[in-house]
Write a structure and sequence with these properties.
homodimer, 485 residues, alpha/beta, five-stranded mixed sheet, 13 helices, 16 strands
Chain lengths: 485, 485
């Protein structure tokens, strides 16, 4: 029944909306006629969508960067190689003015890492350094573990909970379609090391924030606080955390010894790649489609975020292949060093203050390669009814309407904070955190069919935004906190 | 519909067989009346089965050995600890004469290991040393890779295929309920290193024999040949093999550098644990239920083979809890050092030549913790019809009849070769090779419900064999090749 319904339902919906939408639009908010998306724009968007489903370059792009570059940590020669690779590809696809914009970061590089339980039942455990962590003393650090079932339990523990100990927060990350599970636990990682140090702990560990049950640790960035000691910090794989919990349940103290030797690499150059599809009568207005260039170092970053690069490049390529040009300039950006603190996005926004008011709308694809199921916006609420034609186009690929609370993707944060209208083509991320930030984020985890659906949604949406009349500002709540990284 | 059918079908079958079996038995092979399994034995077997489903000690046993001992490679102090742990547990459960039997093996211990592609696209890859492999020169060994899609392609390659190269066989292992996929590819691992050396290769690698698509390599034993150079040998994780295949598809030579430092540890003591449930009028006949004590070193060996230890110990415990004693002695054995070449089983058989003719029947549980779906035997064909009562009992837990081609489990090999009747309670192993021999073989992969069903089948079968009259010899084809390890 489902295949039939999914083929037929969009057609019925489309027919119904064709009749209903103008009326609805008039009733709910008086939209200036200039906001209308013309029938011609809608038809081209639908054609782009259908062409995307017939095949596009997204998978090939992802296969290319993950194979020929591989892991590409921000601020390393591998990221530079990824930038050069991307420049060559985007030029070959027909993007204009393709260039690299360099910026400086404080580099960090993973070193050797090992860990074991030393008591009561000695055995090796699987950990990885958290991004930005200082090293342990050479030869390792050993201490008793203070276990906490949740991060709140840890924060509310008595003042003497942790002195001289290794804090280990064992809270699980819940699987959720929109990533809400990770949003809830990500502070366990980012803020945990400083909070542990404030309580006298000698190190901080947590259950990996992934939703898998494999023996992979899940890395990610931490934020030390000024004036608070910097303690070595690591993620433990889910099965190993459960092993430690079983040991602790027997009532004896558990001791861990671990040795991590990451290196604070000092000032390092990172790279953002930019290319354009020049507009016509509104060439000085911009629609930004983006992804991030860097990946964590443990894997080839196929999902995070070669997928986003492939999806946006493929959407741009379909537009480049059209006989007509867009009215606004479509700018593709692959931001450098997203993973540690959105340094690439902030550096880009800072370097181009004049650009920000000219950005009509922007978004980043940075949530893997699952199918898009929802179109979210953060536009002036008055303009939303005018988007009925785009909603009609997206309904054909099973993308439903979403609320006006889009964040636009991590690297849109500085743009949104500057008042830029953002949108999110929300992907189904139920499986995303099974792989994200682990050694398992590799090409085989991508379903090319889902990728095609993403490209269809991106190509259609980008075309509509680049060609419609009007203005999407002012946006509600530009300072909404960012969600995922 | 299925739950209803599975509840009802065994009852119908049971009723039908109660009428049909004596007739069938008379027609197909004249079974001596002494072979009959009495109604009382059948009733007790059914009661044991039902008690197992209400709860048993299997999961707790597995939780215990994997938590309190962890990985337990044959011939290491960890295996000794596992032996001492098991002795204490079996004694506490009520087994009699619980003891450790020591034997000598040539030890092998994994060392540091790392690998990377050095050309055309330098990046780290995930490998692990194969069990028994010699080390590379310190600092590593680098060479061009010779790729082969299948092991047969490799064997049939021209004589000059591999000189100075690293052979890499990329053949996949197929998922199969009975492990037939692994049976087909296990020679790729065991014989590959010697075959590569004969062709002048400097090292041997293969796609991990696991059926997963995670970034875990799958270890396992190799067999060098006398007079053939011993080349360093390693398994590569499935996603990394696919990465190398993608690089090779671009037409340039692929070069790998790898550094493995396993150590040939020389003469080492290994440990087999034995315990008894003494019989009554046939106490000098034995039913062996067994598992293996050792595990690979990469994980806690929850599936391979703590599961077998827990299942057989729990089955024995249910029998120990009965008011009556078995007629034959039930011997539980946890063999040491199964993983490298069944050394524990061969040492035990060699040390107890007088025992072998007295073993009525034997089996090993060594295929994980999936549900049992089939009862296979290797008994005198004339006695098979007499097993109808046991088949009736097993049908209630969805165990169907199987052919008379049982191997009995890896450690039954020397017993079978000596003419001992063996049986197999065949488990569904479709997922087994997703974890087997990888770092991911941990407790969370075990479903306690399936474990209960295993214990039910083992308790019932063991009781029937320990109490029925007759003789199961001579067995067909005692020298059938062993299948899995």
């Amino acid at each position: 029944m489902k295949p039939y319904a999914s083929r037929i339902a969009p057609l019925l919906l489309s027919a119904a909306m064709a009749l209903a939408t103008p009326v609805l639009a008039q009733q709910s908010a008086p939209t200036p006629p200039a906001m209308a998306i013309s029938a011609e724009i809608e038809a081209t968007a639908a054609a782009l969508r259908d062409r995307a489903l017939q095949g596009n370059i997204a998978f090939k792009f992802i296969e290319g960067v993950t194979t020929e570059v591989g892991p590409r940590l921000g601020g390393t020669p591998a990221e530079k190689k990824a930038a050069e690779w991307s420049v060559a590809q985007l030029k070959a696809l027909g993007f204009q003015d393709v260039r690299i914009e360099e910026f400086q970061i404080d580099g960090w590089v993973r070193g050797a890492e090992s860990a074991s339980v030393t008591a009561p039942f000695p055995q090796a455990i699987t950990i990885t350094s958290l991004g930005g962590s200082v090293a342990t003393p050479k030869g390792g650090l050993e201490a008793e573990v203070a276990l906490f079932k949740t991060y709140d339990d840890f924060l509310r523990a008595p003042a003497d909970c942790c002195k001289g100990k290794i804090v280990l927060v064992t809270q699980r990350t819940v699987k959720a379609q929109d990533g809400a599970g990770y949003s809830a636990t990500v502070r366990n990682r980012s803020s945990g090391p400083a909070e542990a140090a404030k309580r006298g702990a000698v190190a901080y560990m947590l259950r990996s924030l992934g939703t898998h049950s494999h023996r992979f640790p899940h890395t990610g960035a931490i934020r030390y606080e000024a004036g608070v000691p910097r303690v070595p910090s690591a993620a433990v794989s889910p099965p190993d955390v459960e092993q430690i919990e079983r040991m602790a349940a027997r009532g004896q103290p558990v001791r861990i010894k671990f040795d991590i030797q990451p290196r604070l690499a000092g000032p390092s150059t990172s790279y953002t790649v930019v290319g354009d599809i020049k507009g016509t009568d509104k060439a000085d207005e911009y629609v930004i489609i983006s992804a991030h260039l860097d990946s964590w170092d443990l894997a080839t970053g196929a999902l995070d975020d070669a997928a986003g690069m492939g999806i946006t490049a493929a959407a741009g390529k379909l537009i480049l292949d059209l006989p007509q040009k867009p009215r606004r300039t479509i700018r593709i950006i692959f931001f450098g060093t997203e993973e540690t603190a959105l340094q690439g996005a902030y550096a880009y926004a800072k370097a181009h203050p004049d650009l920000l008011p000219k950005v009509f709308a922007g978004s980043e694809s940075d949530f893997g390669a699952g199918p898009v199921y929802q179109f979210l916006t953060r536009f002036n609420p008055a303009v939303l009814p005018a988007f009925a034609p785009l909603r009609r186009v997206l309904a054909h690929v099973n993308v439903g309407p979403g609320p006006n609370t889009a964040l636009g993707g991590p690297d849109m944060t500085p743009f949104r904070e500057a008042g830029v209208p953002v949108f999110t083509l929300q992907q189904d991320g139920r499986d995303y955190f099974d792989y994200h930030h682990t050694p398992d984020d590799t090409l085989d985890k991508i379903d090319p069919k889902n990728l095609d659906q993403n490209v269809a949604a991106w190509a259609a949406t980008t075309w509509v935004l680049a060609n419609m009349d009007g203005e999407l500002r002012p946006i509600p709540d530009p300072a909404a906190p960012r969600r995922l990284q």
